C-alpha cells in the first residue's frame, strides 16, 4: 500500500524509484542536472573549451604566431580554415590558442572575486552591525568606480601581463559577489530552519556552511558563471587597450581589436574570435542556469 | 515527583529598537518540575514566544537582549552563558519545536540528513550509527517505513509528518525539557491532537518535561499540569491547571475563561469578550497594564504595577485586588 503511495509521490516529484539508494545534495543535484538538456549543451561547450585549451598544440594546424607575408588576409579555405590576418597568421590556430587565455582569465579571475566576495558577504550578512556597514561601504566605493577605469588603473600600477589581469579583474569583481551573497544570506538567515538549527545547538560556522551556503548558492552560481563571460570580455577590452595580454600572444579580445580596421575587407578576422567569445559566454550561462535549477529540489 | 528542573526568576528580555525599548518579557517567573507539562498562555504579542526563546538565548539579534533575571537549570544560570556554552544545551538538554514545520526544515537536505545532524552535533558517533538512530527516531514518532523515508525531502512530507520529523529531531538527544512553541498552530485540526498526544506520550516515556506555548485554552486544559497566563510581556497568573480554570484570580484570566465555549453551557449564555486591545509594549504607563481593559479596575490600579506574588500556596497572581477575589471565592 505504502509502496504505491511512494511510487506515486516519486513520479510527482521526479525522484526515481530506486528504493534504498542514499542520496546527498550533490548527487541529487547532478541527477537533476543531467536531465536538463540546455544545461548539458552548456556543459558540453565548457568541456569542449577545456579540451581545446588543454590540447591546443595538437588541434592547431599552424604556429599561431608565425607570420607568412604572402598569405596576408587570405579568406577561409582548405589551407587556412578560418583565413589569415593582416600579418598572415592562421586565425584558426590563434582562436584555438586564444581559448587558453580566455579560459584562464575567466576562471581564475572569477575564482578570486568569488573567494573575496563570499568571505566578505558572509561576514557582512550573517553578523551584521559594524562589520556589515564597513564591508558594504568599501563595496560601494568599488561600485562607484567604472569597471574598465578601475582595471586600467590597476593594470597601470601592476604593469601588463596575464597574472596581473587575473588580479585586476578578480579584485574589481568581489563587490558584486559580496553584495549578492549578503542579500541572499539576509533573506535566509531569518528563515525558521536557521532558527531551528540554532535551537539544535549548531554553531555559527556550521550554520553558515551547512545551512546558509547551499540555500544561498543558487544566485551565486548563476552570477558566477555569467561573470566568467564578463571577465573574458573585460580581458578583451584590456587587451584592446594594450594593457592586457601582450602581442604576439593570441587572445580573442586582441584579435577582435586587430580586426577592426579590416572589418569590410576581411570580416573573418572579426567573425571567428567573436563567435568564440559568444559560444564561450553562452556555454557558461546555460550551465549556470542549469545548475541553479539542479540545486533547488522544489523545481519541476 | 516535585523535583525542580527549571526555575525562571524575574526574567526580562527587552528589544532595543530604533523606536524605543520594547519590553517583550518583563519580570516573568515560573518553576518547571520534572515530568511536568507547563502551559504558557497569552494572546499574540504577550511575550510567550520570547520567553521560550530566552530560555535558550535564541532572541533575535541584534536588537534583543536578556537584561535581567535568572534561568536556573541544573544548578547553572543559563541566562548568563556565552554562545559557545549555551550551544551545548540547545537541542541536547533542552530542545525546541517550532510553530511552522514547513519552514523549520531545511529544504535542500533529506529528512534523514537533518535528523542525523541533530544527533551528531551533540554525540560523537559515526554516520552509520547516527543513521540507525535516526531511523529509530522516525519510527518512534510514527512515520511508516522509516528506512525509506530517511531519503525523502521535506517537501515530500505532509504538514503533520514534518512536525513529527521536527519532534524526532528535538528528541534526538533525549532532552530534559522540550519547549513547544505553538506546535500545532500551522496544522489541520485533525492532526493537532495526534501531534500533541505524540509529544506527551513520548515525553512520558522518557520522563522529561514540556513547556507548551499556545493560545488554545482547550489544549492547555487537556495536557498541561500548570499554567502561566501572560499579558503584555508580564505574567499575570501562574498556578495548577485546576485553579486557573476553576478559581482564576486575575480579571484577565477570568475574561479568557469567559471567552471559550463550553459543552455544558446553556444556549442563552453568551461568550464574553474582553474589550479593547493589548497595549503597545513601548512606553508603558506605570500602572497595571491591564488597567484600560479591566472590568474591576479601581483608582490605585493606574498608579503602580501590582507585584507578581504567591497569594495561596502554588498560586501566583499580579493584581491589586486579589485579596477581594480570594475572599469572594472563599465565601462561595
**Strand fraction band of chain B?**
15-25%
Distance between the termini of chain A: 26 Å
Q: Domain count of chain A, please report it.
A: 1
Annotation field: number of helices of chain A: 12
In total, how many beta strands of chain B? 12
Number of strands of chain A: 0
Mean pLDDT across every amino acid position of chain B: 88
Biggest sheet overview of chain B: 8 strands, mixed
Biggest interface found = A-B, 37 and 41 residues
The whole-angstrom Rg of chain A is: 23 Å
Number of helices, where a helix is a run of at least 4 consecutive DSSP H or I residues of chain B: 12
CATH architecture of chain A: Orthogonal Bundle
Using the alpha-carbon principal axes, give the shape of chain B.
globular
Structural class of chain A, by secondary structure, is mainly alpha
Q: List the secondary-structure elements of chain A in sequence, H or E.
A: HHHHHHHHHHHH
Q: What would the CATH topology of chain A be? A: MetI-like fold
How would you name the oligomeric state of the polypeptide chains in this document?
heterodimer
Task: Describe it.
The complex is a heterodimer of chains A (300) and B (332). Chain A is mostly helical and 300 residues long. Chain A has a single domain (2-12, 42-295), classed as MetI-like fold, CATH 1.10.3720.10. Chain A has helices at residues 2-13, 25-34, 37-54, 56-59, 91-127, 129-144, 147-158, 162-189, 192-199, 204-240, 252-259, 268-295. Chain B has twelve helices and twelve strands. In chain B, α5 (127-140) crosses α7. Chain B has helices spanning 48-55, 83-87, 101-104, 111-122, 127-140, 146-149, 159-171, 189-206, 217-223, 241-246, 251-258, 322-331; strands at residues 4-17, 20-33, 37-41, 64-73, 76-77, 94-97, 177-181, 209-214, 226-231, 234-240, 309-312, 315-317. In chain B, β1 and β2 (20-33) form a beta hairpin. Chain B has 332 residues and is an alpha/beta fold. The relative contact order of chain B is 0.14. The model of chain B has no long low-confidence stretch (mean pLDDT 88). Chain B is globular and about 65 Å long. In chain B, strands 6-7-8-3-9-10-12-11 form an eight-stranded mixed β-sheet, sandwiched between helices. Chains A and B meet through α1, α9 and α10 of A and α2 and α4 of B.
